[in-house]
Amino acid sequence: MPVTARTLVSQLAAQPDGPVSVAGWVETVRDQKKVQFVILRDETGAVQLVTPATRELAEDAPAEGPGSAAALALTEAISALGHGSFVRVTGELKHDERVKLGGLEVKIGSLEVVSEALETPIAADSSLDKRLDWRFLDLRHPKQNLIFRVQTTFLHALRNVWVEKGFIEIQTPKLMASASESRAELFQLEYFEGVAYLAQSPQFFKQMAQSAGFGGIFEVGPAFRADPSFTSRHATEFTSIDSELSWIDSHEDVMALHEELLVAGFQAVADKHGDEIRELFDVEVTVPARPFPRIPLAEAKRLVAERGYTVPRADADIDPEGERQISAYVRETYGHEFVFLTDYDSSIRPFYHMRREGDPSITDSYDLIFNGVEISTGAQREHRIDVLEAQARDKGLEPEELSFYLDFFRYGVPPHGGFGMGLARVLMLLLGESSIRETTYLFRGPTRLLP
Ligand code: AMO
Question: Is the CB–ligand 1 distance for residue 425 below 6 Å?
Answer without folding.
Answer: yes
